[in-house]
Amino acid sequence: PGSVSAAFQEYLQHLRLQDFPCGLGSWNKSRLDARRSSLAEEAVPPGEETPEVLLELLRDQHSPWALPPECSPQDQLLREVAVLAPELLHGPRVFQAFKSLRILDKGVEEVDEGLLQFQQLEELVLSANRISRVSSAHLPRTLKILELCCNAVGDLQDLCARPPPELQHLGLGYNRLCGPSQEKHLTVDFWPNLVSLDLSFNSLTDLLGLVSQLSTLQNLRILVLQGNPLALTPTYRGFLLDSLPKLSILDDILIWPEERQQFHGLARQPELIRSEARVVVSIGEMKGLPNPEAFQQLEVGSEGPVITYSYCVTYEF
């Protein structure tokens, strides 16, 4: 599927919410008719099943209608709701049942406007897809968690045009963000309630510029920046701890008061921040190359042929 909506429809087909023992059908017709007419539920007529029997068909691991073991608790809950109150998941109503939507590694490339049908959605996880652009106009305003890890996002402009105002976590790890052009989108003007931000393993290089923007996020408590070139600077962690005093966790490591005190005052010395880093690469063993010691040293004046070898080693960061 190319879009989130297409991936969601594929997910619904997998759950089979409209098929026996879920959904509306001859196996529960009288019970649902009684509910619609507000009549007391009578004995189950022949050919129909009680809700208890239908639920057992879902829960018994040996049942042909049971979900695979790897399915999430949400999948199981939706199936049970489709047994007890199938009218709640019928047609467009199904979108109102979702507060969390997780679509991982499904080849999704587009965050389309179909997401706006999820008017109760609070968590959206689209990790390990092929998304390069996210339009905030297609995101439900109710979102509190947006996780886009392992995609191809390289620009935040569209995402920040009108982002969800209550968003508390933004996950952009393992994407293609390059500094310093993206730092301007990481301020309180766009994310007034952000508590957690993951920017790990991108290509951000401007530590001073990024910190000046992040310092406006008064609610920020969790920050992940590891894997960016700026994290290689010698005073990286200390400078961040002193510059962002409200942080509780940096790069998945809890910040203790003693550590913060150790770097007190470092934020007022930006001249200590270097725009370069030294990387030492050690090669333990290389195979398939001629051993120089195998060649005998030519005597002075010898007319024998001279063979030289040269190699080029490339490092990719």
UniProtKB/TrEMBL annotation:
SUPFAM superfamilies: Outer arm dynein light chain 1 (SSF52075). GO terms for cellular component: cytoplasm. Keywords: Leucine-rich repeat, Repeat. InterPro entries: Leu-rich_rpt (IPR001611), LRR_dom_sf (IPR032675). The keyword Repeat applies. PANTHER family: LEUCINE-RICH REPEAT-CONTAINING PROTEIN 51, NISCHARIN RELATED. This is LRC43 protein.
